[in-house]
Amino acid sequence: MRIVIAEALTNIAKHSGAEVVLRREDDVLHLRITDDGRGGAAESGGSGLGGMRRRVEALDGTFALASPADGPTTVTVSLPCGL
Fold first, then answer.
1. How far apart are CA 77 and CA 58, in angstroms?
2. What pLDDT is stored for residue 47 in this prediction?
3. Which of 36, 53, 75, 79 could pair with 61 as two cysteines, CB 3.0-4.6 Å apart?
């Protein structure tokens, strides 16, 4: 999870402000990062988002990206965690 947060915050620092929400429900850790940017983020083009997805999915987690053209961008990640 640390690498996902670090990569997301790096993207935020480059592009805009953000809200980070981290919570745990039972054995799942949930992370939502929403920025106040212009949107249009994509996983292609070396943005780092594709790498985030690969790392999350390698840990049996889920990754979702929502970034409409007029913003904001939201990255949502869920990862299993031990009790």
1. 13
2. 72
3. 79
Tell me the residue length of the chain: 83
Residue 4: other Cβ atoms inside 10 A: 22
Instruction: Let me know: does 35 contact 12? Beta carbons within 8 Å.
Output: yes
- The C-alpha atoms of residue 66 and residue 59 are separated, in whole angstroms, by 21
Q: Determine the pLDDT at residue 69.
A: 93
The answer to whether the predicted template modeling score (pTM) of the entire model surpasses 0.85 is no
Between CA 22 and CA 5 the distance in angstroms is: 10
Both tokens of 28, joined, read 């799942």
Nearest to 75 by CA among 53, 59, 46, 60: 53
Which residue is associated with the tokens 């999870």? 1
